[in-house]
Q: What sequence folds into this?
């Protein structure tokens, strides 16, 4: 496995809400009349905590290094928002401790066998047979920062 994680911390239940401007931007797939000029004046805000953290007491953040999940949109340096309160289902991306190593993989059933699958064809699925595996949580969001 070539992905390493660093625990960045837990979500703070007492963190104050921080509303940011969140203008309404809708894409249109065709002409269906004129947009309302009043839309430009709606006072919308975005609170990143409310948007990305559904259960603060069950949420923590991880920093990713490695390339095993690149095709699933998780890249080196990304920050994962992980929710411990969710039960993993096939298709979920999870954080797990497998044989003493923390890993991020997609949970899938392969021929009836539960497996942890990477998003990089260089790495084979890991069948969860005769392995010690503890699920830490389900990845709810991926935060990717561009170098600017």
A:
């Amino acid at each position: 496995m070539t992905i390493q994680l660093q625990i960045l911390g837990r979500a703070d239940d007492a963190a104050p809400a921080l509303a940011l401007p969140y203008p309404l931007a809708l894409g249109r797939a065709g002409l269906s009349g004129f947009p309302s000029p009043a839309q430009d004046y709606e006072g919308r805000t975005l609170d990143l905590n409310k948007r990305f953290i559904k259960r603060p007491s069950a949420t923590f953040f991880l920093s990713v290094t490695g390339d095993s999940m690149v095709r699933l949109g998780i890249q080196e340096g990304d920050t994962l928002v992980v929710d411990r309160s969710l039960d993993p289902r096939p298709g979920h991306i999870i954080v797990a401790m497998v044989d003493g190593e923390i890993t991020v993989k997609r949970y899938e059933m392969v021929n009836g066998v539960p497996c942890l699958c990477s998003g990089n064809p260089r790495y084979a699925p890991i069948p969860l047979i005769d392995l010690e595996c503890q699920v830490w949580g389900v990845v709810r969001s991926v935060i990717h920062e561009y170098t600017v």
Observations:
- The domain at 6-10+44-143 is CATH 2.10.109.10 (Umud Fragment, subunit A).
- The chain has one domain: 6-10+44-143.
- The beta strands are 3-10, 19-21, 45-47, 59-66, 79-83, 93-98, 101-110, 113-117, 126-127, 133-143.
